[in-house]
Amino acid sequence: MITTLPLSSLLLSDLNVRKTERDADIAALADDIAARGLKQNLVVVPAHFTTSTVNEQWDGVDRWADKFEVIAGGRRFQAMQLLVEDGRLPADHEVPCLLEDRAEAEETSLSENLHRVAMNPADEFEAFAAIVAQQVNGGALQADAVSYTARRFGVTVRHVEGRLRLAALAPEILEALRTGAIGLESAKAYAGTTDHALQVKVFKGRLKYGDHNPRWVRDELRGKTLPINHPLMTFVELAAYQAEGGRIEAEMFMGTDGEQRVVDVALLEKLARTRAEAMIPAQAKADGYKQGLFVKGVGNGASWCAAPKGYERHWGYGTELSKTAKKKAIGVYAVASDGLGLHCLGAFKPEQKREPAETRDWDAERATAARDRAIEARAARMAVPKFAGTPLADRAFWPRGGWPVEDCDDEHSFVVVWIKVPIAEVEANRADATRLVDEELAAKAAADAARERGENAPLDDDQADDKSEDEEVAA
Question: Please, are residues 132 and 149 in contact by the beta-carbon 8 Å criterion?
Fold first, then answer.
């Protein structure tokens, strides 16, 4: 049953299934109700002390009598309470309510919250644009229409301006948002500029990757626009740029809202080249060069162009060249890093004739080196005594790969031989090997300790190692 109840008789109920974001945007909702009134009734049930709180002094009677709990519309109720606190609504304001039985309370609350469908963002943007357009068509200025809409819906002017920017997205990007192909944050990233051609160019580029990550979208858009204080703009001057049709726009959704950006970068670069090329002849003459040329970029970060025919790049700043050499060279200029003039990057000097580099047959050299190594290895192996008739017969092998010969001293060489031994014999010697190694380590530790005490050790480390190795081989 729909009835009206005094706002002062209503309480926020614990039976409302919405537990999170209960206080979200209450101030904005309050402004909206103040402007347009309450457009949807609340759902209430008789109050009970187990599910609601009454902040009134107890006077011996039931404080919950004649009270009602709001089980659906809690945010609207809180917004009206805020209006009472602000003095914009009387405490006993009559509120339309649907009165239900307590047994149905949680089901009603769940049904309202569960089946609520959020408005598609694209529809929201277009609705804001339509309302502003209606005001403008009625004779209001754009700024006034935006301010009116902001007040009407209890939001900020910046919020409305953002929605208008989003509503003005390129149609295919807005449609992608409407169909869920991109998310709201990606749409905001594309709305960072109003240039549809630029939006679509980046959008189609991101389609190839199947990813419209907002950060990457912003980075790509930023790479195709320039800040208003860029050196090229300082060099050309804003008035000259705009006189040629150049556009400036306020940045949105880029983390630097309100920053002015240069949209027509190609036009700005063209104007910079035109002005620079008019200045270069006089500047090159003053710097002592035969002539000068302009390259794209700013300061030392400018990109060098290819050397003119008959010239080569001078690897330096040009100041190292003599007056005579400069008169034959071409100065290379870019816009200065502060945009206040030209910057000389260096110069192209007349190409010097050089003797052709020696050509080498690398394949032949590699083949010769391989042959020399093979001969040395074969000769060294031929010098090794034969193993036939010795205990190493059938157990000695030449290694496969690697370098089989190493220097020993001026009169000898080491020749590498592999000796095959049974694994069982290796395991049988493990206990003795362990004992010998431990004895050697203990002896080395004792020698180190003796040297630390200043005593004469019998052998230094290298001698001890050499001796132990000789003993092992002899054994």
Answer: yes
CA-based nearest residue to 268, from 221, 299, 226, 219: 226
Q: What are the residue boundaries of the structural domains of the chain, listed by start?
A: 2-114, 362-420, 425-474
Residue of 69, 53, 49 lying closest to 5 (CA atoms): 69
- pLDDT tens digits for 383-417? 998 888 898 888 888 888 767 888 888 888 999 99
In degrees rounded to 5, what are phi and psi of residue 46? -55, 140
- Domain 2-114, CATH class in plain words: alpha beta
CA distances from 399 to 211, 391, 416 (A): 56, 19, 7
The whole-number mean pLDDT for each consecutive block of 10 residues of the chain, a chain of 475 residues, reads 90 70 74 87 85 60 78 90 93 92 69 62 87 88 88 83 91 92 91 89 90 87 85 96 90 68 91 96 96 95 94 89 94 96 95 82 92 90 89 87 82 90 94 95 92 71 51 44
- What does each C-alpha distance from 245 to 180, 195, 263, 266, 319 come to in angstroms? 36, 14, 11, 12, 40
